[in-house]
Every structure is written in C-alpha cells, then in structure tokens.
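On clarity, I found the account of how folds are encoded harder to follow than it need be. For illustration, here is how one protein appears when written out as sequence plus structure tokens.
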Amino acid sequence: MSHTRVGFIGVGDQGAPIARRILEGDFPLAVYARRAASLEPFRDTRATFPESVAALGAQSDVVGICVVDDAGVEEVVVASGLLEAMAPGSAIAVHSTIHPETCRRLAARASDRGIALLDAPVSGMAEAARAGSMIIMVGGDREAFDRCLPVFETFGAAVHLGPVGSGQVAKLINNLVGGCNLAVAHDALERGRQLGLDRAALARVIRAGSGASWGLGVYADSQFSLGLGRERGIELVARNGRKDIELALGLLASSGLDAGILAPAAEAFLAAVDREASSQAGAGPATTPRRALTTGA
C-alpha cells in the first residue's frame, strides 16, 4: 500500500468512480460527503469516513475535490476549514470544472500556508473513470504535480499544462469543442432524417467516416445516457454543459478574444440540450432560464 494518504470530497456520479479507482490503486483513502447516502457505496471498502472536511484534511497528504461549481470548491477549501487543517507540504487537486481565476486565487491562499493547489479537471465521464481512462488536465507547481501523479494515474492519464489555471483553460476549451460536436451531430442526423435517411444507418456511416466525433457517438449510441442512464445523463449535460459553455465563452470574452464559429455552435448545443430535456420530461418548451451567450464584453 502506498504511503500517500489521499482524501476525496465529492463522490457523485463522476467523483465516486474516481475515488473507487484510487482505492483500487492501493492508496489509503478518506472520503467525505455531506449526504450520508453518498458514502454507502464505500461502506464495504477499507475507506475511512472523517466527520468533517477539516478532519479529512488533517489526515491527508493529497486531497481531491470533485464538487459542482466555483462556490462549492470555495466552500470546501476555505469555509469548511480544509486549508487550515492540512499540513505544509500537502496538496489539493481540484477536479471540478470552474473558472481559472478561482483556482489562481485559491492557490495563492494555499501557497501562504505551504500547500500546493493544482487545478486538475477531468474529462471522460463516469465510464472512463471506472475504466481508468480519463484525461486529467493539470495546472500548477510541477513538483506538486509529480507528487500527485501516482494518484492521478489510478484513474487516467495526466497532462501538465503550465501554471495554475492552465488545466481549467484546457478543460473549458475541450468542453466547448465537445458541445459544438454535439450540436453539429444533432443537426446533421436531423437533416439526414428530413432527407429520408434512416437515422441509425446514417449514424453508422458517419461514425465510420471522416465526420466521426464524440458528439455523434453520444447521439448515436447512448442518447445522452453517458453511462448513467438517459434521464440522469440529460440532467448532467443540461446542468454542467451549460455551466461549462458559459464559463468558456465568458473566459474568451474577458480575454478580448472572439469565439468565432464556436459561439453559434455553442448556442445550438444549449438549444439541443433544452430540447432533449423537454423531451425527457414530456413537457413543452424548456422552462430553465438560460443566459444569452455572447462574445462581447
């Protein structure tokens, strides 16, 4: 068993299989979740369950965080006492997809206490986590990255991209491209259907040709199930997809960059998600408010 003690916070659809892979990699693991039900899948393992975030931090050399958004990460790192509890020389890996500036700000606070904070968002969804084939996009101190690498490699391949925030920039661009792929796949299959082609047959052709993409696979194979079931998959795409696309376009706008063709494609992606969510619910037009996407300041 490794001597590196790992803590993990956020064992939802994506975090749970990541944490399971860390356990299978023979690391001692402490798990924390606000809801007791989230810990049930780990009750039959050698994982431990500290009573608080601070208690988890005090007994961990590396802590992975996989919660939903910026506010959740800030709550875990600062308000819940993680930074105060962790020892100098330890490290935090933020696997959530959040704004790069949030990571930079938290990393500065962590550095004041002698703790390294890496932004390490992941790509691959639950199936890839279970298979150990995720991509982990990492920004931050190279020495801290090297120390955390054996943990990362239990659930995927890690790439060091530069200073803190670099991992989030890469993840947002990746998700922006993924969203655009989904939008293109949706419209292509629909146009083919309107022109009299069998949808499934067309999908098989495109997947074997130059038009193949991850987005096409999501539509053709799983219809948004993403290894979680269609209803849950659509829910996650609608929630996290919208958050990530808005973060990505906002980052481009704040940097004075034109999103170009990515902006209308991203808008089409969100519209497609709305249609899928409405279809799943058997409702009319989606009622979830959606902020207008813009590349302007």
Remarks:
- The radius of gyration is 20 Å.
- The first helix runs from residue 15 to 24.
